[in-house]
Every structure is written in structure tokens, then in C-alpha cells.
Design brief:
single chain, mainly alpha, two-stranded antiparallel ribbon, 6 helices, 6% strand, globular, disordered C terminus
């Protein structure tokens, strides 16, 4: 989920992963080629589903709506809301990392005008911020807030843009 970029690797310890573990299964999503490209370009994200181990695809760039995934008959729109299928064995993706991605991707979606500007956060953003803030100790929460505030279009833990 966090590519080998210096600033991203430096943030891994906040989420319980050592910097040397950038390729750890908890930091990796195996996705179909088109999905991986859209994820890397911040056009899609995976939001928390109904259970703690359930993640659903959320299409942020509606321009991809009718685009077919290479080698399939599926479009991005047909996959929206569907769960991310993972093997039962082995570690699951780090929920805090996915939540952090949700926060950053929704912020980017507004910047790209894929989502409507609003002072209020979406339910997905609130859920992601709650997961990030409630699952970390106070020092880690402070570091996470600092990481999120680096972006000039800062969104706070309290659900409002400031």
C-alpha cells in the first residue's frame, strides 16, 4: 500500500510496521492490473465494510465508471461496493493503513473535483479517522495528525476542514 517512497516508508512505524517491512503482506494488496493502477493514481480506495475484515471498493474518479478492466467484461462501476477478496490464511492488510489511504484519497478526490467540496466529511472519512485515532496510542495519534496536516488542504480529526 505504501510504495517505496522515502516519506511513505518513514510513516510505516506509526502503523506498527518497521521501515524494512515495506513488502510485508500487511502492507501489500494484490490487485488486478487496472485496479492497482487506479489505486496508485488515487482513483479508487477500499473503505471499511460491515465487519473489521471486510473492505469494499469505492470509485472516486467517476470518469472510470464505464472503463472495462483489461481482460474482463467488468467495468469499474460494476465493482463499486464489492468486497475485496482475500485468502483466509496469512495476515490481513493493515486496517489503519487502509484507513489512512481513505483519508488521503478522499482529500485528493476533492482536490481533483471528483467529489463535491464540503465542510463535512463523508461517513467513510469519519469511519477512517475514527479507526486511525482510536487504534493508536496518544503519541502515535499525534504523529498521525502531524502527517495528515502536512498537506495544505488539511482535514482534522474532528470531522471539519480547517
Amino acid at each position: 500500500m505504501y510504495k517505496r517512497q522515502r516519506h511513505a516508508i518513514a510513516q510505516l512505524p506509526v502503523f506498527g510496521l518497521e521501515q524494512s517491512k515495506v513488502h510485508h503482506p500487511r502492507n501489500v494488496l494484490r490487485l488486478q492490473e487496472c485496479l492497482e493502477r487506479a489505486f496508485d493514481r488515487k482513483q479508487i480506495t477500499f473503505i471499511q465494510g460491515d465487519t473489521s475484515n471486510d473492505f469494499k471498493l469505492r470509485l472516486l474518479d467517476k470518469g472510470l465508471k464505464n472503463v472495462k478492466l483489461k481482460g474482463t467484461k467488468s467495468t469499474f462501476a460494476s465493482l463499486e461496493g464489492l468486497p475485496l477478496h482475500m485468502k483466509q490464511k496469512g495476515p490481513l492488510p493493515c486496517r489503519r493503513l487502509l484507513a489512512h489511504h481513505v483519508i488521503l484519497r478522499y482529500r485528493n478526490a476533492r482536490k481533483q473535483h471528483w467529489l463535491e467540496e464540503s465542510d463535512d466529511l463523508t461517513p467513510e472519512e469519519v469511519q477512517a479517522e475514527n479507526l486511525v485515532s482510536h487504534s493508536l496510542d496518544e503519541c502515535a495519534q499525534a504523529r498521525t495528525k502531524l502527517m495528515l496536516s502536512v498537506n495544505k488542504q488539511c482535514i482534522g480529526i474532528f470531522g471539519k476542514r480547517f
